[in-house]
Amino acid sequence: MRILHTSDWHLGRSFHRVNLLDAQRAFIGHLVRIVREQRVDVVLVAGDVHDRAVPPLGAVALFDEALHRLADLGVPTVMISGNHDSARRLGVGAGLIDRAGIHLRTDPAGVGTPVVLSDAHGDVAFYGLPYLEPALVREELGAERATHTDVLAAAMDRVRADLAARPAGTRSVVLAHAFVTGGTASDSERDITVGGVAQVPAGVFDGVDYAALGHLHGCQTITERVRYSGSPLAYSFSEAGHRKSMWLLDLGPGGGLTAERVDCPVPRPLARIRGRLDDLLRDPALARHEDAWVEATLTDPHRPDEPMARLAERFPHVLSLVLDPERPPQDPLASYARRLRDRSDQEITEDFVAHVRGGLAADDRERAVLTAALDHVRLGESETDATGAAAGTTEEAGAR
Question: How far apart are CA 193 and CA 206, in angstroms?
Answer without folding.
Answer: 23
